[in-house]
Each structure stands twice: as structure tokens, then as C-alpha cells.
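Lab manual, section 2.4: Encoding a predicted structure.

Procedure: take the sequence of the chain (95 residues), apply the prediction step described in section 2.3, and record the output as C-alpha cells. A sample record is shown.
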Amino acid sequence: MNQEQHEMVLEMTHPSGMQGWFCPSCGRRILLHVPPHGDLVIVERGDESAGHSGSIGGLRIGVVQVSERRDEPEKISEERLLPWIKALEDLNLDW
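Recorded output:
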């Protein structure tokens, strides 16, 4: 059985180092504090049966294509950031 694979994209990075990742395929949202902390908070579950991965850097590598990152990052509307803002406020982080 082949598990469906979704690629998550980095949408925001909080000054604390917490990263907000989003899956455009199913709506999954997670907050990830990279090692050494390793904290993971699921904000929106999305498709839990799919495998999720993501990467950051200048290149995005897919199954059949390689594309270079745009010079200007995509502008993210305040409305789209609201789930992240609420999740970060709810965590009451003290870092």
C-alpha cells in the first residue's frame, strides 16, 4: 500500500524560533521548534493518513521537477496568519 505524500511549506518563524508549517494539500498546520528543543504542536490535523515532509532552503526538490526559490517570498495575508497567532498565544511560551 502506497501512502499519499504531502509536502509542507514553511509559512512563518516566530522570534522564539518556533516555525509554522502548512500543508496546502490538506490544510495540516504544525508548530515546530527545531532541535535541540524538538517541540511539535499540531494546530490543524489535516489528513493524518498522509505522510508529510518539508524542507527549507533555496531549492525545492520534487519527484519530477527542481525549481529555484523566487527572489521575493510570497506575501502572507494577516488573515492567513491568524491560526498561527492564536496557536502561539494559546501555548503561552516563556522562552
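Check your result against the sample. The chain is about 15% helix and 35% strand.
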